[in-house]
């Protein structure tokens, strides 16, 4: 079985390559050109984003033809394809994938709307890879991904709502927007519809990251072993401080610090830090 995702999963290139996972690029539209989000490193992108202020680029989903070509290439050995994509509540990527799959008769393509993004999407992609390696059927993998999705919390805070507002992605977070550039919002991905939802606010990153940890402790307890992925745009020191605090207050069984990809960073800016969290028992027998 071949696993496909998109760059909204924040899957490091080396990890995707080593596991044989294909990543379709989301696209970033700068004033002078459009590029695939995998063509720039995170630091190159965030440096350019800062330099563009107050303008910001826009994003675009892959075209159906890109997915059709990708699926045809992967179907050379008649293997099934499982294609897991960023939440339909935040992007039209899965609709492009669906249209692309309809053009391919060479193999079976199963599509999954992960209903989240970033580290939460990555958990589902990695779970699918583990399950496929263990010989599970597509149907069993889809059931597993539903359990992973239900058990995952994807939550983050931002130095400013400016980028979400400029990109038109503020949605239900607008309840926090009384002082757009001064508050530090806490945002998570709603499991019901895969959209951003406000979960709190603070005046400093220390306040909001502390509130995130309290939220996670209430959600999972402080004893349940967790797989935690800390993600940030371009604030590595704050990400490390957040990771250390998570490790001191929660039962962190596995921890990594990764970067928020350019495709997502367009809408959050460089000052994003957060976490995707999954209880390890959900993947019992696979890790």
CATH class of the largest domain: Alpha Beta
Order of helices and strands: EHEEEHEHEHEHHEHEEHEHEHE
User: How large is the radius of gyration?
Assistant: 18 Å
Helix proportion range:
25-40%
The CATH architecture of the largest domain comes to: 2-Layer Sandwich
Parts with pLDDT < 50 across at least 5 consecutive residues? none
Helix/strand-derived category reads: alpha/beta
CATH topology-level name of the largest domain: Hypothetical Protein Tm841, Chain: A,domain 3
Q: How big a fraction of the residues is strand? A: 15-25%
Provide a descriptive summary of the structure in words:
- With 287 residues, the protein is of the alpha/beta class.
- The protein folds into two domains: 2-26 and 61-150, Rossmann fold; 152-283, Hypothetical Protein Tm841, Chain: A,domain 3, CATH 3.30.1180.10.
- Helices cover 39% and strands 24% of the residues.
- The protein has ten helices and 13 strands.
- The chain has helices spanning 13-19, 42-52, 64-74, 93-102, 118-133, 138-151, 162-166, 205-220, 236-249, 262-268; strands spanning 2-6, 22-24, 27-29, 34-36, 58-60, 81-85, 109-113, 153-158, 184-189, 196-202, 226-232, 252-259, 272-279.
- It has a six-stranded mixed β-sheet with strand order 10-9-8-13-11-12, with helices on both faces.
- α4 links the parallel β6 (81-85) and β7.
- α3 (64-74) crosses α4, α5 (118-133) packs antiparallel against α6 and α8 (205-220) packs parallel to α9 (236-249).
């Amino acid at each position: 079985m071949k696993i496909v995702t998109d760059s909204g999963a924040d899957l490091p290139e080396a990890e995707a390559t080593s596991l044989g996972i294909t990543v379709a690029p989301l696209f970033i539209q700068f004033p002078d050109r459009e590029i695939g989000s995998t063509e720039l490193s995170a630091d190159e992108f965030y440096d350019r984003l800062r330099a563009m202020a107050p303008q910001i680029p826009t994003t675009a989903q892959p075209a159906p033809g890109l997915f059709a070509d990708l699926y045809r290439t992967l179907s050379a050995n008649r293997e099934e394809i499982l294609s897991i994509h960023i939440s339909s509540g935040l992007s039209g990527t899965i609709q492009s994938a669906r249209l692309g799959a309809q053009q391919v008769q060479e193999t079976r393509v199963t599509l999954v709307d992960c209903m989240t993004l970033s580290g939460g999407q990555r958990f589902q992609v990695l779970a699918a890879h583990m399950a496929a390696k263990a010989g599970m059927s597509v149907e069993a993998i889809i059931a597993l991904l539903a359990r992973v999705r239900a058990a995952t919390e994807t939550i983050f805070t931002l130095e400013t709502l400016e980028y979400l507002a400029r990109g038109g992605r503020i949605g239900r977070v607008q309840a926090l927007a009384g002082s757009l550039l001064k508050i530090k919002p806490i945002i998570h991905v709603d499991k019901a519809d895969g959209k951003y939802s406000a979960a709190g606010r603070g005046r400093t990153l220390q306040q909001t990251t502390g509130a995130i940890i309290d939220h996670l402790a209430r959600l999972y307890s402080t004893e349940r072993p967790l797989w935690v992925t800390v993600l940030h745009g371009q604030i590595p020191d704050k990400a490390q401080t957040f990771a250390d605090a998570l490790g001191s207050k929660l039962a962190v069984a596995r921890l990594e610090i990764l970067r928020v990809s350019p495709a997502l960073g367009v809408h959050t800016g460089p000052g994003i830090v957060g976490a995707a969290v999954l209880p390890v028992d959900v993947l019992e027998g696979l890790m």
